[in-house]
Amino acid sequence: MSLDLLNRGDAPFEQEFWDTLDLTVKSVAEIQLSARKLIFTEGPAGLGLQFVPGNERQIEFPEGDATLSLSHELPLVQLCELFSISGRNIEVSRNAGLKPNFEDLVSCLLKITSLEDKLLFYGAAASGINGLLTHPDTRRIKLSPWNKPGDSVESILQAIEILDNGGFHGPYSLGLSVSLYNKLQRRYPDTDILEIDHLKKVITGGIIKSAAIVSGGVIITGGAEYVSIVLGQDLMAGFEGPSARDYIFTLSETLALRINTPGSVCVLEGFN
To answer: CA-to-CA distance for 54 and 28, rounded, in angstroms?
Structure first.
């Protein structure tokens, strides 16, 4: 996207400052964003992208013989947070060559990345936006408790069988709540084999842990043709202006979850 829309040209900072800030945003986002590790990401296409074209559906009209259809468009949601950096902090960076203290930026990043994951997994029901775990047309299975080694593999294989029977034969990726992911670190009795290593033989697209998933998890069939995250503007910092002796910045992005083929997804409904 054009950096003009981020007002960076109005900021009294050298490019080196922005490079350091951008690297911090990228580094923290890559660590924190769990849904992007699970789902294929398209874009960024630019801030101007407000809707993703969807499937055409015919609509009824009482007059004439012409066929009328309407595109079901998917809106991109904009996420935005503010953070500040003190002028004193920036000046020390300029004169002493030290990296600025980005404490407020990192705090802002933790907040907005958590919000992105929650949006992608659970949607925004009040606005009619579905998440990966809340879409009404995905496949579902109720998990039994994973009390002993091997229970997790049995549950995942049952979910894979549901996808196989629906015509989706992989490769698969698996996202789990923190508590379930941690159970995969158990060893089988009298062996050095971890449950997670056993699962990797059938889940070849990756197994990720997500703090945004409250309970249970989800298996998706790989490929943007089935499910993807569409980015308009990727996560970037912009300049708002001075405030007393501080400088105010924005951290923003626009994105949408596109589920083209709900049947390629199997939601694992938690037992806790």
So the answer is: 32
* 193 and 81 in a common domain: no
Are 225 and 13 a contacting pair, CB within 8 Å? Answer: no
Per the structure, the complete domain to which residue 66 belongs is given by 3-131+228-257
Does residue 183 sit in the same domain as residue 65?
A: no
Domain match, 176 and 252 both: no
* Domain count for the chain: 2
In the chain, % of residues over pLDDT 90 = 81
User: What is the bridge-based pairing of β-strands 246-259 and 227-231?
Assistant: antiparallel
Mean pLDDT lowest among 85-94, 119-128, 198-207, 254-263: 85-94
pLDDT given for residue 189 in this prediction: 92
pLDDT for 211: 97
The two structure tokens encoding residue 131: 């998440």
Residues in contact with 196: Cβ distance below 8 Å, sequence separation at least 6, in sequence order: 184, 185, 207
Binned at pLDDT 50, 70 and 90, residue 95 comes out as: confident
pLDDT at 272: 57
Q: Are 153 and 198 in contact (CB under 8 A)?
A: yes
Look at the pTM and tell me if it is higher than 0.70. Answer: yes
Alpha carbons within 13 angstroms on the beta-carbon side of residue 271 total 11
Q: What is the spatial distance between Cα 52 and Cα 107, in angstroms, rounded to a whole number?
A: 31
